Predict the structure.
Amino acid sequence: MIKNILSIIIVTIAFFTSAQEVKYNLRMPKPQNHYYHVEMELSNFSEKEINIKMPIWAPGSYLAREFAKNVNLVKAFDGNGKALTVKKTNKNTWNIQKGNANKVVVKYEVYAFELSVRTSFLDLTHGFVSGSGVFMYVEGYKEKAGRVEVFPFEEFRVITTAMKVASDGVSNDGATTYVFENYDHLVDCPIEIGNQEEFFFTAAGVKHKVAMYNFGNYSIEKLKVDMAKVVEGATSVFGQNPNKDYTFIIHNVVNAQGGLEHRNSTVLSVNRWTYEGPKYIGFLKLVAHEYFHLWNVKRIRPVELGPFNYDEENYTSLLWVMEGFTSYYEKLILLRAGFYTEKQFIDKMWSSLNYVEGSVGARVQPVAHASFDAWIKAYRHNENSRNTTMTYYSRGSVIAMMLDAKIIKHCKGKESLDGFMQKIYKKYYEQKGRGFSESEFKKEIASFAGQNLDDFFAKYIDGTEIPDYNKEFAPLGLKVEYTGEAKPSIGLSIAESGGKVIIKGIRSNSSAEDAGLSVNDEIIGINGFRADKKSLDDYFKTVNKGDELSILISRDNQLYSVDLFVTEYERPSFKYSLSEDKQYYDFWLRKP
Ligand SMILES: [Zn+2]
């Protein structure tokens, strides 16, 4: 009885309390001015005041970009058009004194003139909306579902986004209304508005849409076949694909910017001539990378990466898993899909391995720290970064290969890293509906590999040691030899700029550093000879350990003479060969 009365009360309350509603209108009346005009229609908010906020970052790109810097003319009105007081309370928050108004309309403009996969853009050729830099949210109400109506500029005919069109969403004036489940969903669906060319293909049972902004040397028929193979290859890792549909927005430009992942879409920025010749495989690799992310990072994820905090940095030590494993799988997918030969696949992994071990920063920055500090280091390179940082992409991909080898060996060729990915997908995404902590991840991978990995983590993930690759990769049928050797070096890199030879990098603990040379110094002469870039390159090739060099430089227009001795530097490197005992080589390469 009590139960029945309670449920009646709950139903009654639900009936009489109108839910808050959020609706956005997006307009672009003058694209040449690069301003989006945004309206937020907020209904049934009972608070006397509300805060609206602009995110500081775009998920997937770990840098505080301060999108509020592009926002102007924030105004608010009640349902009768009466202006409400708007006050700025911190860098990305506007406080609105709404009193008893049942309806509030917030209007603002966003300057959009940075064409990249994580920022927004508008001109007379097209508009691109990366949601977290255009749509604000009501503090405390990010979970609210809502609608967004897009009014394209009169000469734009096509809107491409992974968001669903509302059942009543198509109007006669060219505007289209979309529905979103919550704010995370809204900003996870970038929008391309213009006259882009669209085409479709079905792969892995999923309907795929591709929107091409601007000219490129692509063949739609070829892309339909090859992108489908990549999709099938990625899906085969998990044995299932969680999406019903998936959208590619592709910007064909001069300066390619890479890609950004979303749950059922991606944005790729590629050079417009990438679709023929040797560059084409790079395009397919990018497709594989971003597509794999729909599982790894968008669903399989550290607990810090979703639901997101848009107000500040979201720190995680696991980007080496999110980006590194994805970098390993992008290559495995191309192998599975038939775009790489076995040798090409191993060679690609090998160049990552030698890049990692040959980097000075690899001995300074553990990959867990590289992940955590992405916000302050990975996207903020300076002249010293090469001495102090390590990329979690390459190092993470090599660690993925080592963990693959451990699992394959432990399971005697019955399981691989694929099985582990499937397991954490099921356990955390499907069953628990959340991300994992760093310690949970560590426990899961150790249990799947059937061994204690404390030492492995301490040395290679939280530490900077060089692994015993010969031992690590033996189960994969690879023999590994160290090939590094000491060579004469003074430790500087130079470039020509405006007819001058300028120092661009100085290696830590090199004779150049010890002698007092610095980045930005202009090299004028060496051992009595005038220097140009070519003669210096030639000269440095002839020096031997112990040679004395007298270098004339200009620093801030003052001349200095710097004397130093050539020393030696040993850059670690490795080569592989296939062992006679192939062990689990075929299984590793996922041969059927
Ligand atoms: Zn990535």
In short: The chain has 16 helices and 30 strands. Confidence is low (pLDDT under 50) at residues 11-16. The pocket of zinc ion is lined by residues 289, 293, 323, 326 (CB under 6 Å). The first strand starts at residue 21 and ends at 27.
